Amino acid sequence: MKVGIPKELKNNENRVAVTPAGALELTKLQHEVYIQRGAGAGSGFPDEAYEKAGAILLPDTESVYNIAEMIVKVKEPIAEEYNLIRKDQLLFTYFHFASSEDLTRAMLKSGSVCLAYETVEASDRSLPLLIPMSEVAGRMSIQEGAKYLERPAGGKGILLGGVAGVKPANVLVLGGGVVGTQAAKMAAGLGANVSIMDINLNRLRYLEDIMPANVDTVMSSEYNIRELIGNIDLVIGGVLIPGGKAPSLITRDMLRLMKPGTVMVDVAIDQGGCFETSRPTTHQDPVFMVDDIVHYCVTNMPGAVPFTSTLALTNATLPYVLMLANLGWKEACRRNEALGKGLNIINGTIVYKEVAEAWKLDYVEMSAFLA
Predict the structure, then answer these.
(1) Architecture of 2-119+306-370 per CATH?
(2) Which of 53, 63, 144, 165 is 20 to 30 Å apart from 265, CA to CA?
(3) Catalytic pick from 233, 266, 270, 295?
(4) Which whole-number Å values give the CA distances from 358 to 145, 302, 367, in the listed order?
(5) Catalytic residue among 96, 198, 233, 295
(6) Mean pLDDT computed over every residue of the chain
(7) What pTM value is reported for the model?
(8) Residue 270 among the catalytic residues
Protein backbone atom coordinates (compact mmCIF):
# COMPACT_ATOMS: atom_id res chain seq x y z
CA MET A 1 0.00 0.00 0.00
CA LYS A 2 1.07 3.59 -0.62
CA VAL A 3 1.15 5.30 2.78
CA GLY A 4 1.35 9.09 2.95
CA ILE A 5 2.51 11.17 5.91
CA PRO A 6 1.92 14.91 5.36
CA LYS A 7 3.33 17.61 7.58
CA GLU A 8 0.79 18.79 10.14
CA LEU A 9 -0.63 22.20 9.24
CA LYS A 10 -2.55 22.98 12.42
CA ASN A 11 -1.19 25.94 14.40
CA ASN A 12 1.95 24.93 16.34
CA GLU A 13 1.34 21.24 15.71
CA ASN A 14 4.81 19.71 15.75
CA ARG A 15 3.93 16.03 16.08
CA VAL A 16 4.31 13.57 13.22
CA ALA A 17 2.12 10.51 12.62
CA VAL A 18 4.86 7.99 11.81
CA THR A 19 8.41 7.90 13.18
CA PRO A 20 11.41 6.64 11.19
CA ALA A 21 11.06 3.37 13.14
CA GLY A 22 7.46 3.09 11.96
CA ALA A 23 8.45 3.89 8.39
CA LEU A 24 11.00 1.07 8.51
CA GLU A 25 8.39 -1.42 9.72
CA LEU A 26 6.18 -0.46 6.76
CA THR A 27 8.92 -0.59 4.13
CA LYS A 28 10.12 -3.97 5.46
CA LEU A 29 6.67 -5.27 4.51
CA GLN A 30 7.04 -3.84 0.99
CA HIS A 31 4.72 -0.89 1.54
CA GLU A 32 5.64 2.43 -0.06
CA VAL A 33 6.01 5.27 2.44
CA TYR A 34 5.80 8.87 1.23
CA ILE A 35 6.57 11.62 3.71
CA GLN A 36 6.57 15.37 3.26
CA ARG A 37 9.93 17.05 3.77
CA GLY A 38 10.25 18.44 7.28
CA ALA A 39 7.24 16.51 8.62
CA GLY A 40 9.25 14.99 11.46
CA ALA A 41 11.53 17.93 12.24
CA GLY A 42 9.37 19.36 15.00
CA SER A 43 9.49 16.04 16.85
CA GLY A 44 13.24 15.67 16.41
CA PHE A 45 13.21 13.30 13.42
CA PRO A 46 15.19 14.63 10.41
CA ASP A 47 14.42 13.80 6.80
CA GLU A 48 17.60 11.72 6.59
CA ALA A 49 16.27 9.30 9.20
CA TYR A 50 13.21 8.63 7.07
CA GLU A 51 15.30 8.13 3.96
CA LYS A 52 17.43 5.56 5.80
CA ALA A 53 14.19 3.79 6.72
CA GLY A 54 13.27 3.53 3.04
CA ALA A 55 10.70 6.34 2.88
CA ILE A 56 10.42 8.62 -0.13
CA LEU A 57 10.52 12.38 0.57
CA LEU A 58 8.03 14.61 -1.22
CA PRO A 59 8.18 18.41 -1.41
CA ASP A 60 4.68 19.44 -0.32
CA THR A 61 1.34 18.41 1.16
CA GLU A 62 -0.38 18.14 -2.22
CA SER A 63 2.19 15.63 -3.49
CA VAL A 64 1.59 13.36 -0.50
CA TYR A 65 -2.20 13.41 -0.86
CA ASN A 66 -1.98 12.84 -4.60
CA ILE A 67 0.00 9.61 -4.37
CA ALA A 68 -1.18 8.01 -1.11
CA GLU A 69 -3.89 5.38 -0.74
CA MET A 70 -3.80 5.84 3.05
CA ILE A 71 -3.03 9.14 4.76
CA VAL A 72 -1.76 8.85 8.34
CA LYS A 73 -1.93 12.08 10.34
CA VAL A 74 -2.04 13.34 13.92
CA LYS A 75 -4.70 16.04 13.77
CA GLU A 76 -7.77 16.54 11.62
CA PRO A 77 -7.33 18.03 8.14
CA ILE A 78 -7.70 21.80 8.06
CA ALA A 79 -9.60 23.74 5.39
CA GLU A 80 -6.70 24.00 2.95
CA GLU A 81 -6.43 20.21 2.90
CA TYR A 82 -10.11 19.49 2.23
CA ASN A 83 -9.85 19.65 -1.56
CA LEU A 84 -6.77 17.41 -1.59
CA ILE A 85 -8.69 14.46 -0.15
CA ARG A 86 -10.23 12.19 -2.76
CA LYS A 87 -12.90 9.51 -2.99
CA ASP A 88 -11.99 6.15 -1.40
CA GLN A 89 -8.81 7.53 0.17
CA LEU A 90 -8.34 6.27 3.74
CA LEU A 91 -7.55 8.85 6.41
CA PHE A 92 -6.35 7.62 9.79
CA THR A 93 -6.04 10.42 12.37
CA TYR A 94 -7.78 12.27 15.18
CA PHE A 95 -10.95 13.83 13.74
CA HIS A 96 -13.19 14.88 16.66
CA PHE A 97 -16.08 15.39 14.23
CA ALA A 98 -18.52 16.33 16.98
CA SER A 99 -16.65 19.61 17.48
CA SER A 100 -16.71 20.77 13.82
CA GLU A 101 -19.64 20.67 11.45
CA ASP A 102 -17.50 22.16 8.65
CA LEU A 103 -14.99 19.30 8.91
CA THR A 104 -17.78 16.72 9.04
CA ARG A 105 -19.46 18.06 5.90
CA ALA A 106 -16.12 18.40 4.07
CA MET A 107 -15.23 14.77 4.72
CA LEU A 108 -18.71 13.65 3.68
CA LYS A 109 -18.29 15.58 0.43
CA SER A 110 -14.82 14.12 -0.22
CA GLY A 111 -16.09 10.53 -0.39
CA SER A 112 -13.13 9.38 1.67
CA VAL A 113 -12.97 6.78 4.45
CA CYS A 114 -12.39 8.47 7.81
CA LEU A 115 -11.06 6.26 10.59
CA ALA A 116 -10.75 8.22 13.83
CA TYR A 117 -8.13 7.46 16.47
CA GLU A 118 -10.41 8.74 19.22
CA THR A 119 -13.19 6.19 18.66
CA VAL A 120 -11.09 3.04 18.25
CA GLU A 121 -12.50 1.16 21.23
CA ALA A 122 -11.29 -2.05 22.87
CA SER A 123 -13.60 -4.70 24.31
CA ASP A 124 -13.17 -3.24 27.81
CA ARG A 125 -14.44 0.11 26.43
CA SER A 126 -11.01 1.71 26.74
CA LEU A 127 -9.81 3.97 23.92
CA PRO A 128 -6.26 2.78 23.15
CA LEU A 129 -5.38 5.52 20.68
CA LEU A 130 -6.80 8.32 22.82
CA ILE A 131 -5.21 7.21 26.09
CA PRO A 132 -1.60 8.27 25.36
CA MET A 133 -2.58 11.80 24.34
CA SER A 134 -5.04 12.03 27.22
CA GLU A 135 -2.18 11.18 29.55
CA VAL A 136 -0.07 13.96 28.05
CA ALA A 137 -2.91 16.50 28.02
CA GLY A 138 -3.94 15.67 31.59
CA ARG A 139 -0.44 16.26 32.87
CA MET A 140 0.04 19.36 30.73
CA SER A 141 -3.23 20.86 31.98
CA ILE A 142 -1.64 21.37 35.40
CA GLN A 143 1.55 22.81 33.92
CA GLU A 144 -0.45 25.30 31.90
CA GLY A 145 -2.89 26.01 34.70
CA ALA A 146 -0.03 26.75 37.10
CA LYS A 147 1.51 29.12 34.58
CA TYR A 148 -1.69 31.06 33.97
CA LEU A 149 -2.36 31.37 37.68
CA GLU A 150 0.64 33.70 37.69
CA ARG A 151 -0.34 37.34 37.90
CA PRO A 152 1.46 38.50 34.70
CA ALA A 153 -0.59 35.86 32.82
CA GLY A 154 -3.90 37.15 34.19
CA GLY A 155 -4.29 34.75 37.10
CA LYS A 156 -4.70 35.27 40.81
CA GLY A 157 -0.98 35.23 41.48
CA ILE A 158 -1.12 31.94 43.36
CA LEU A 159 1.64 29.33 43.56
CA LEU A 160 -0.02 25.97 43.05
CA GLY A 161 1.73 24.25 45.94
CA GLY A 162 1.94 27.20 48.30
CA VAL A 163 4.85 27.53 50.75
CA ALA A 164 5.34 27.17 54.50
CA GLY A 165 2.71 29.26 56.22
CA VAL A 166 0.74 29.89 53.01
CA LYS A 167 -2.03 27.58 51.84
CA PRO A 168 -1.69 25.84 48.46
CA ALA A 169 -4.11 26.39 45.59
CA ASN A 170 -7.43 24.57 45.33
CA VAL A 171 -7.86 22.56 42.13
CA LEU A 172 -11.11 21.08 40.81
CA VAL A 173 -10.85 18.28 38.24
CA LEU A 174 -14.02 17.44 36.31
CA GLY A 175 -13.93 13.83 35.10
CA GLY A 176 -12.18 10.86 36.64
CA GLY A 177 -10.98 9.26 33.41
CA VAL A 178 -7.46 9.28 32.00
CA VAL A 179 -7.21 13.08 31.69
CA GLY A 180 -8.66 13.70 35.14
CA THR A 181 -6.56 11.04 36.83
CA GLN A 182 -3.31 12.37 35.36
CA ALA A 183 -4.27 15.96 36.16
CA ALA A 184 -5.11 15.10 39.77
CA LYS A 185 -1.84 13.22 40.22
CA MET A 186 0.19 16.14 38.86
CA ALA A 187 -1.65 18.75 40.92
CA ALA A 188 -1.36 16.65 44.06
CA GLY A 189 2.32 16.08 43.40
CA LEU A 190 2.86 19.84 43.32
CA GLY A 191 1.14 20.14 46.69
CA ALA A 192 -2.26 21.53 45.69
CA ASN A 193 -5.51 20.61 47.38
CA VAL A 194 -7.44 18.65 44.75
CA SER A 195 -11.07 17.67 44.33
CA ILE A 196 -11.86 15.23 41.51
CA MET A 197 -15.43 14.69 40.32
CA ASP A 198 -17.09 11.91 38.38
CA ILE A 199 -20.58 10.46 37.98
CA ASN A 200 -19.35 6.87 38.33
CA LEU A 201 -19.27 5.84 41.98
CA ASN A 202 -17.11 2.78 41.26
CA ARG A 203 -14.56 5.02 39.56
CA LEU A 204 -14.57 7.35 42.55
CA ARG A 205 -13.95 4.40 44.87
CA TYR A 206 -10.97 3.40 42.75
CA LEU A 207 -9.60 6.96 42.74
CA GLU A 208 -10.10 7.20 46.50
CA ASP A 209 -7.85 4.14 46.87
CA ILE A 210 -5.01 5.24 44.59
CA MET A 211 -4.81 8.99 45.16
CA PRO A 212 -2.70 10.69 47.82
CA ALA A 213 -4.25 12.27 50.91
CA ASN A 214 -4.52 15.74 49.36
CA VAL A 215 -7.04 14.49 46.74
CA ASP A 216 -10.74 14.29 47.62
CA THR A 217 -13.31 12.49 45.49
CA VAL A 218 -16.72 14.11 44.96
CA MET A 219 -19.81 12.88 43.14
CA SER A 220 -20.34 15.13 40.13
CA SER A 221 -23.54 17.15 40.02
CA GLU A 222 -24.47 20.72 39.20
CA TYR A 223 -25.21 21.35 42.88
CA ASN A 224 -21.80 20.10 44.01
CA ILE A 225 -19.98 22.06 41.31
CA ARG A 226 -21.73 25.27 42.35
CA GLU A 227 -20.90 24.61 45.99
CA LEU A 228 -17.20 24.15 45.27
CA ILE A 229 -16.19 26.61 42.55
CA GLY A 230 -16.33 29.74 44.68
CA ASN A 231 -13.22 28.54 46.48
CA ILE A 232 -11.40 27.02 43.49
CA ASP A 233 -8.31 28.53 41.85
CA LEU A 234 -7.88 26.14 38.91
CA VAL A 235 -10.53 24.08 37.11
CA ILE A 236 -9.58 21.24 34.76
CA GLY A 237 -12.26 20.01 32.35
CA GLY A 238 -11.58 16.40 31.40
CA VAL A 239 -14.95 14.82 30.62
CA LEU A 240 -15.49 12.61 27.59
CA ILE A 241 -18.38 11.12 25.67
CA PRO A 242 -16.64 8.96 23.02
CA GLY A 243 -17.27 10.47 19.60
CA GLY A 244 -19.92 12.86 20.94
CA LYS A 245 -20.06 16.44 22.19
CA ALA A 246 -18.83 17.04 25.71
CA PRO A 247 -21.48 18.24 28.19
CA SER A 248 -21.27 21.83 29.48
CA LEU A 249 -20.57 21.38 33.16
CA ILE A 250 -19.56 24.98 33.87
CA THR A 251 -22.22 27.37 32.59
CA ARG A 252 -21.82 31.08 31.92
CA ASP A 253 -23.74 32.06 35.05
CA MET A 254 -21.38 29.97 37.21
CA LEU A 255 -18.48 32.28 36.35
CA ARG A 256 -19.89 34.95 38.67
CA LEU A 257 -19.43 32.48 41.54
CA MET A 258 -15.67 32.37 40.89
CA LYS A 259 -13.06 34.88 42.00
CA PRO A 260 -11.36 37.01 39.31
CA GLY A 261 -8.20 35.38 38.01
CA THR A 262 -9.48 31.82 38.41
CA VAL A 263 -8.07 29.66 35.60
CA MET A 264 -10.11 27.11 33.61
CA VAL A 265 -8.33 24.60 31.36
CA ASP A 266 -10.72 22.85 28.99
CA VAL A 267 -9.05 19.63 27.87
CA ALA A 268 -12.40 18.55 26.37
CA ILE A 269 -12.28 21.36 23.81
CA ASP A 270 -11.53 18.84 21.02
CA GLN A 271 -15.04 17.51 21.58
CA GLY A 272 -16.69 20.93 21.83
CA GLY A 273 -15.57 21.78 25.36
CA CYS A 274 -17.12 21.22 28.79
CA PHE A 275 -17.35 24.91 29.74
CA GLU A 276 -20.18 26.88 28.12
CA THR A 277 -17.85 29.84 27.54
CA SER A 278 -15.08 27.80 25.89
CA ARG A 279 -13.93 28.37 22.33
CA PRO A 280 -10.96 26.76 20.56
CA THR A 281 -7.59 28.50 20.94
CA THR A 282 -4.05 27.82 19.72
CA HIS A 283 -0.60 27.64 21.28
CA GLN A 284 0.09 30.97 19.59
CA ASP A 285 -2.85 32.64 21.36
CA PRO A 286 -3.86 30.18 24.10
CA VAL A 287 -6.04 32.12 26.53
CA PHE A 288 -8.92 34.58 26.68
CA MET A 289 -10.92 36.18 29.47
CA VAL A 290 -14.64 35.95 30.16
CA ASP A 291 -15.92 37.81 33.24
CA ASP A 292 -12.33 38.03 34.56
CA ILE A 293 -11.94 34.24 34.38
CA VAL A 294 -8.93 32.92 32.42
CA HIS A 295 -9.88 30.32 29.78
CA TYR A 296 -7.21 28.03 28.30
CA CYS A 297 -8.74 26.03 25.42
CA VAL A 298 -5.91 24.87 23.16
CA THR A 299 -7.16 22.06 20.92
CA ASN A 300 -3.81 20.34 20.47
CA MET A 301 -2.14 20.61 23.85
CA PRO A 302 0.25 17.66 23.30
CA GLY A 303 1.60 19.43 20.21
CA ALA A 304 3.65 21.62 22.55
CA VAL A 305 5.70 18.62 23.69
CA PRO A 306 6.04 16.83 20.35
CA PHE A 307 8.97 14.57 21.12
CA THR A 308 7.19 12.93 24.04
CA SER A 309 3.80 13.05 22.34
CA THR A 310 4.89 11.60 19.01
CA LEU A 311 6.58 8.62 20.63
CA ALA A 312 3.63 8.01 22.96
CA LEU A 313 1.12 8.24 20.12
CA THR A 314 2.99 6.15 17.56
CA ASN A 315 3.67 3.42 20.11
CA ALA A 316 -0.10 2.97 20.14
CA THR A 317 -1.01 3.64 16.50
CA LEU A 318 1.67 1.70 14.60
CA PRO A 319 0.14 -1.79 15.05
CA TYR A 320 -3.11 -0.47 13.57
CA VAL A 321 -1.30 1.32 10.74
CA LEU A 322 0.45 -1.94 9.84
CA MET A 323 -2.83 -3.84 9.96
CA LEU A 324 -4.55 -1.34 7.67
CA ALA A 325 -1.64 -1.35 5.22
CA ASN A 326 -1.43 -5.14 5.15
CA LEU A 327 -5.14 -5.94 4.88
CA GLY A 328 -6.87 -2.80 3.60
CA TRP A 329 -9.42 -0.98 5.76
CA LYS A 330 -12.36 -3.31 5.13
CA GLU A 331 -10.64 -6.55 6.01
CA ALA A 332 -8.73 -4.97 8.90
CA CYS A 333 -11.97 -3.65 10.39
CA ARG A 334 -13.71 -7.02 9.87
CA ARG A 335 -10.96 -8.81 11.76
CA ASN A 336 -10.41 -6.22 14.48
CA GLU A 337 -13.58 -5.02 16.16
CA ALA A 338 -11.77 -2.27 18.08
CA LEU A 339 -10.41 -0.80 14.85
CA GLY A 340 -13.81 -1.07 13.18
CA LYS A 341 -15.28 1.21 15.83
CA GLY A 342 -12.90 3.89 14.60
CA LEU A 343 -14.86 4.20 11.35
CA ASN A 344 -16.77 7.49 11.42
CA ILE A 345 -17.44 8.28 7.75
CA ILE A 346 -17.38 5.94 4.75
CA ASN A 347 -17.74 7.26 1.19
CA GLY A 348 -20.08 10.12 2.07
CA THR A 349 -22.04 8.34 4.82
CA ILE A 350 -21.77 8.79 8.59
CA VAL A 351 -21.41 5.44 10.32
CA TYR A 352 -20.82 6.65 13.89
CA LYS A 353 -24.04 7.46 15.66
CA GLU A 354 -22.75 10.21 17.97
CA VAL A 355 -21.30 12.16 15.04
CA ALA A 356 -24.62 12.05 13.20
CA GLU A 357 -26.47 13.14 16.33
CA ALA A 358 -24.08 16.05 16.90
CA TRP A 359 -25.10 17.66 13.60
CA LYS A 360 -28.54 16.08 13.08
CA LEU A 361 -27.39 14.19 10.00
CA ASP A 362 -28.29 10.77 8.63
CA TYR A 363 -26.58 7.70 10.01
CA VAL A 364 -26.07 4.18 8.61
CA GLU A 365 -24.81 1.16 10.57
CA MET A 366 -21.13 0.50 9.87
CA SER A 367 -21.85 -3.20 9.34
CA ALA A 368 -23.57 -2.36 6.05
CA PHE A 369 -20.16 -1.45 4.61
CA LEU A 370 -18.26 -4.39 6.05
CA ALA A 371 -20.57 -7.16 4.83
Answers:
(1) 3-Layer(aba) Sandwich (3.40)
(2) 165
(3) 270
(4) 29, 25, 21
(5) 96
(6) 96
(7) 0.90
(8) yes
